[in-house]
């Protein structure tokens, strides 16, 4: 009888593991709401409780274990592998990351502003492509994420090029000229909370931080989506805007980046 009980318990545990590891992820990867609910709410909370750590801490541990110190490509690769095979996270990801890389290379910016650092994944991607004298300012209002991002950026050897500022975009954008000595930004990567894209774009215009030819690149314009921002940059005579179709990070749900050139 004990043997039967043991067999049923281990059979049940194996079934649960298969569901958690393969079946549910492969079903939800085609559906935006289900994918975000599964990865960003259920799995994250479950693993936080079971491991007594946070997702950013687990991501950092994966970097320290699998990436070579001072090699940014290995840091990006370690994060992508962690997020594809172990635990999803809200970085721009490998697929949209290639679009980000190509825009950074095309613009060849001397000054970059990133809104939303999280663990520093996109920061490392951008910093790697910048010339040595370029300036990259990245804003993050969650101090727990900022602590992790600093370590990820340092592990990638990019800390000299990056200025991570803790605080909210709405408070910091008006201080960019005075406190950070920036005249205008050649490139802005918008990847913070989606309801801030439009007010922050308008705030950057008001503060004179966008010059003729400045490029705004916005992530997640389809999923979770930022319809008011899209409507603005696509219909305003101040911008020439273009959509780059892709997928939500590490899934097959449609998402994309919007590149908008400020025409002055
Ligand atoms: C999608 S994640 C950024 C991912 C990151 N760009 C990457 O690809 O690796 C969004 C981040 O923006 C931060 N955030 C959201 N609203 C913000 C705001 N108004 N000011 C500063 N940070 C913000 C969140 O705490 C979160 O870490």
TrEMBL record:
Top-rank taxon: Eukaryota
Enzyme class: transferase
E.C. designation(s): 2.1.1.6
Swiss-Prot/TrEMBL catalytic activity: a catechol + S-adenosyl-L-methionine = a guaiacol + S-adenosyl-L-homocysteine + H(+)
Pfam families documented for this protein: Methyltransf_3
Keywords linked to the UniProt accession: Catecholamine metabolism, Methyltransferase, Neurotransmitter degradation, S-adenosyl-L-methionine, Transferase
UniProt entry tagged with the keyword Transferase: yes
Coiled-coil segments: none
GO biological process, one term: catecholamine catabolic process
Keyword Iron-sulfur recorded: no
MF GO annotations: catechol O-methyltransferase activity
Similarity section: Belongs to the class I-like SAM-binding methyltransferase superfamily. Cation-dependent O-methyltransferase family.
Protein known as: catechol O-methyltransferase
Species whose genome carries this gene: Takifugu bimaculatus
